[in-house]
Amino acid sequence: MYGLSCYKTFNNWYNTLSNDLNQVRCKSYNRFLDYSKIPKLQEDDLEEQYIRGSGPGGQATNKTSNAVLLKHKPTGLVVKCHETRSLFHNRKIAREILLKKLDNLINGKDSLESQEEHLLKRDLIKKKQKRKKLADLKKSFEERENLNK
């Protein structure tokens, strides 16, 4: 393939790819969330243990100490993480999970999870109202134009 035919083939392929990407939408609430109240994790407050993992993977996971048990001393929250085979990634994930739990415990309704849940509920209510409004408009149009079957 050379020249114009190659360009047309690539252009058609690219357009189908970009159309597929445009159809998938994930709404992000990050800009609406208040991150100022998130507690900071102090390394002195954490007790970290590396324990042997379990589950699928056989000997490779059962013999290596790549699972992380993380305890927050002041609150007593405990998190165990064995999502990957990498100790480094498990440490990172365990800290993220502990931070979420600590945020929920300390902030309650002002935690990031509850803020995001509130925004999601608000959007669902707006969508429901919009669907109802459009259905009412359609119904009134059908009655006005005598389109009832």
Overview of this protein structure:
This protein has 149 residues and is mainly α. It has 2 domains: 39-107, Double Stranded RNA Binding Domain (2-Layer Sandwich); 111-148. The protein has 4 helices and 3 strands. It has helices at residues 3-23, 59-62, 87-107, 112-144, and strands at residues 46-51, 67-72, 77-81. Strands 1-2-3 form a 3-stranded antiparallel sheet, covered by helices on one side. The longest helix has 33 residues, at 112-144. The relative contact order is 0.10. The mean pLDDT is 85. Residues 95-147 form a coiled coil. Keywords: Coiled coil, Mitochondrion, Transit peptide. Its main location: mitochondrion. It is found in: Mitochondrion.
Strand and helix layout:
Blueprint: H1 3-23, E1 46-51, H2 59-62, E2 67-72, E3 77-81, H3 87-107, H4 112-144
Antiparallel strand pairs: 1-2, 2-3
